[in-house]
Each structure stands twice: as C-alpha cells, then as structure tokens.
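Putative HNH nuclease YajD: structure, please.
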Amino acid sequence: MTEYKSKEQKKKFYNSKSWKELRLLALDRDNRECQECKRQGKFNHGQNVHHIKEIYFYPELALDLDNLETVCINCHNIEHKRTFAHINPNKSTKKIWQDERW
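Here you go.
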C-alpha cells in the first residue's frame, strides 16, 4: 500500500491525475460550497477539498470520495490548526502582528 508520510509522497499524490479528477467530483458533488460553514448555518464558497480522515493515517482512503468534503480556506486552516490562535495560544491574537518598529 502506498504511504503518504513524506512531503515528496504527498506532493506526488496531490499532483496525480487520479487526485485531480476526484477533487473535481467532490467539488461538483458539494456544489462548491464549504460543508463546514454549511453545518454552522453559513454560506461560503469552498475551493479546497479536505480529507476527513487524513491520508497520513489512512492512506487507503486517499481516493475515496466519501472521505472528501469541500471546505473554504478558513475552515481548512482551522481544521489543520493553521490560524493565528494556534501560533501562540498563550498570547492574545490581537497583538501577534505589530508592523510599527521605531
């Protein structure tokens, strides 16, 4: 079974024809709407296709349409903990970025 542990393995997978075709099927199935926003009663266009069960841990589900959902960039970043709140959870997110330097 193929593994998706290294950066190179993931890059090869996400550049594959199989993934690109399946990604389009997921987007069409979900009407290009973010499914997480939809669960919260909001509407947002989704451009990312998210693996519900990550391919790192479940490589057998990498090309399973039932394991995919369309999400917006914000929801995708929250799911993968790529937000300001996750950079330094002990500090207020309001003061992380300060452009002024004297």
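Notes: Residues 7-87 form one domain.
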